[in-house]
Amino acid sequence: MFVAFTKEKKRVHISKAEKNEEYYCPICEELLIVRHGTINTPHFAHKSNSLCSEKDGWHYDMSAWHYDWQNQFPLKNQEIIFKNNNKIHRADVFINNTVIEFQHSPISESEFYERNDFYKNLKYKIIWIFDVEDKEIKCSLNSYNNIITYRWKNPIRFLAKMRNKDPNLTIYLQTKEAIWYRQPNYKDINDFNELQIDSNIIKMCDNKGIDSFFSDNYYSDIEIIDNFCNLEYQNKKKYPYKLGPNFNKLTDEVYNHDVKEEYKFYGYCPLIKNEFFDHTNCHACNYLNIKCMRCMYRFRNIKKDNITNIYDIKYDRDGRVIQVDIEINNERKKYKLIELPNYTKTLLEFALKLNNITNARFINTKTNVIIQMSSNNLEKLIRTRLCYGRICKNNKKASKEFYKIYRWNEPIWLLIWFV
Predict the structure, then answer these.
(1) Burial of 184 by CB count in 10 Å (0-12 exposed, 13-18 middle, 19+ buried)?
(2) For residues 309 and 352, what is the distance between their CA atoms, to the nearest angstrom?
(3) Residue 243 C-alpha from the chain's centroid
(4) pLDDT tens digits along 28-87
(5) Which of 58, 73, 276, 361 is deepest in the core (most CB within 10 A)?
(6) Are 194 and 220 within 8 A, CB to CB?
(7) What is the pLDDT of residues 323-360, one digit of tens each?
């Protein structure tokens, strides 16, 4: 660790550690030692007989890259301790209700997801920054929708296969050296035009395959820091490498689950305010961009010519916009939109909402299993919390037998047909 406590519980950075002084672990309060190694950067460490690792269990990065990133933020925000459900962990940086984790050394897939779950349970947003300077990453830009496609050799395997739709989780990849190596005094510079800014950060939006992924724009390390620390430069303007505002982002995703053509799905239509609107009729209002299956109805009154920048957009779990931070005629504004009903629900939620039906079919969006439930099945689910239905094998005819349906109380079900 790079931050420890004195006897008086004052936070001290490793760079300020003095000889003959005693420093203590913020987690277990054991006496620490100062280590100066040839592999890891100087850090505080526990003695060999310490039991503190049992209280944490995570393997923290002690690289110089990690150390330098962490030091770009105020000391008060570094290595913050959190406790939840008898677990104690420390975040690399905690600022503006956001946990930022820096990763240069390898990390296992299980620990990556464990950290995310721990902080998400505390209702915090999580940002990961991975060092991929040794990876070969090439890009191409789609001029139609400003979407950048990247291809990389020898990817981080669990990142290469994940489909990140979590609005509270952001993953960045650093591809080139940071500004504090090119321009060590960058924080002392007053004029924005004097900064040696480089687009050295990639935001992973979604994976296209095991060796390629999408991004939405170009980023830099100083831009990320500026978002949290508000570096007040003179002549501050838009970062020079940024793409123009992507107006296609101001749209709602129409759930495009991979189901057979003979099936429909029912989702919320803001035009007619119907929660069970058949998506096959969705093309009639002329607000749907068929190429990317996104609806712009709720943003029909915003003139694209007046938008000078888009800073941030937050989506719900179905890809509909719930908050935007945009610049209109050079005036920055934030808008919070009314949250819409989710396309995917628990089967109990559907049972409580569907009335006067004979049969309905649902698809489990995690397993692609399709089930058929009658009105009696849905009523029984409401009364007894027991769920039974018929399995639609090969996505066609329903089985004669009734099966017990598991995971019925998870919001992973999509209505695809009812009569």
Answers:
(1) exposed
(2) 42
(3) 21
(4) 777 777 777 665 677 777 777 766 654 555 677 678 898 899 989 998 999 888 988 888
(5) 361
(6) no
(7) 988 888 878 888 899 889 999 999 999 999 998 899 99
